[in-house]
Amino acid sequence: MTEYIDISIREKNIAFIGFMGVGKTTIGQLVAKKLYRDFIDIDQEIERIHQMPVSLIFQELGETSFRKMERELIVSLCSGTRLKIISLGGGAYMQEEVRKACLSHCIVFFIDLSWEYWKERIPLIIDSRPILQNKSLTEIEELFLRRQSAYSIHHSKISSSEIDAETCADQIVESLKLAWELYHPNHDSFY
Ligand code: S3P
Q: Is any atom of ligand 1 closer than 6 Å to the C-beta of 74?
């Protein structure tokens, strides 16, 4: 059961989730720029802290260590006071603790790209994603489908299959502004 923390929607962080290579970082950066907020890409932050590329962390320390690093970082960023926009690695949201932290402290946007569109991107991302190594196309598709049930737990979904990152970001900003306008938790104090 998710614990919902009573904070105003305007004071929530924004988190982007979705399978690897769907454009979470690009879209997250654009949204952050449009809203004048800080942006943190979890993988880049782990690389900065540990001074190692993610692929080397997988190779030298193993996936379990990487999952611990991402879990601890996300949980700590989510509960921090400064408002931020974060983009999660595709596997992070499979961890229950990560889901709980994100759903409690962030507005969670699922960037949804269909398998048909996603598989066209494989050549662009395969070398930098250890999780995709030594897997057949069928195994990658199974992983893609298996993860969808976790991604389905979100606050808002945007399909990036037929629109570019800039249009996605504009639609996200519009939907946030609408939600912020509709929901004024401090409104009552004026009457
Ligand atoms: C992973 C996705 C990657 C990165 C790591 C593991 C995954 O991030 O965290 O290679 O398990 O899906 P992106 O989603 O940014 O590619």
A: no
Mutating to test ligand 1, I would choose from 20, 65, 121, 126 the residue with most ligand atoms within 8 A of its C-beta, which is 20
- Is ligand 1 within 6 A of the CB of residue 91? yes
For the segment 76-92, what is each residue's pLDDT rounded down to a tens digit?
Answer: 999 887 889 999 999 99
Instruction: Give pTM, 2 decimals.
Output: 0.92
pLDDT confidence of residue 101: 97
Per-residue pLDDT at 134 exceeds 90: yes
Total tally of structural domains belonging to the chain: 1
Handedness of CA 152, 155, 157, 158 (dihedral sign): negative
Q: Kindly give the distance from the C-alpha atom of residue 20 to the centroid of ligand 1, in angstroms, as a whole number.
A: 5
Q: Which domain holds residue 32?
A: 9-183
Residues 74, 72: Cα–Cα separation, whole Å: 6
Residue 1 placed within a domain: no
> Helix or strand or coil: residue 182?
helix
188, part of any domain: no
Q: Is 53 in the pocket of ligand 1 (CB under 6 A)?
A: no
